[in-house]
Amino acid sequence: MATLYGTGKQVSGAQDDIGGRFYNTVDWSPSSNIAAGGDYISPNQFGFNSVIQSIQANELDTTGLYFVRVQPLAGGINTGAWKIRYFLLSSGAEQTGTGLTALIFKLSAVGY
Asked: What range defines the domain where residue 46 resides?
């Protein structure tokens, strides 16, 4: 199965730097076919070259029906992608498959 990435649209005016690291925010939408375990998100979707040090997520999407959890794929400074997992607020059930591409979540990250 191919590695699936959602879509991250950088939010204008959200870019900043903190202690020599970059900070940015994206409007995040799930991929067209979410695999078990969620979608991948890469540093370049935030405008970073290679590293995401942390991601902060506005838990609820714009409809208020779904929430996300972000998961680093390695300890220490993560040089690869992270995963974003989607859950239905009313039941807590993890969501996979299709039909969620219209959702928008706010994700902010620190990296370089």
From this structure: 7-105
Q: Is the pLDDT of residue 11 over 80?
A: no
Backbone angles phi, psi at 44, to 5 degrees: -70, -15
77 found inside a domain:
yes
Total of domains in the chain = 1
Q: Which residue has the tokens 């020599």?
A: 20
Q: Which of 86, 62, 68, 81 is nearest to 5 (CA)?
A: 81
pTM value?
0.82
What count of residues does the chain have?
112
Q: Is residue 1 part of a domain?
A: no
- Report how far Cα 65 is from the mean position of its chain's Cα atoms: 17
Beta bridge partners of residue 82, listed in sequence order: 41, 72
Phi, psi of 99 (to 5 degrees): 100, 5
Does residue 11 lie within any of the structural domains?
A: yes
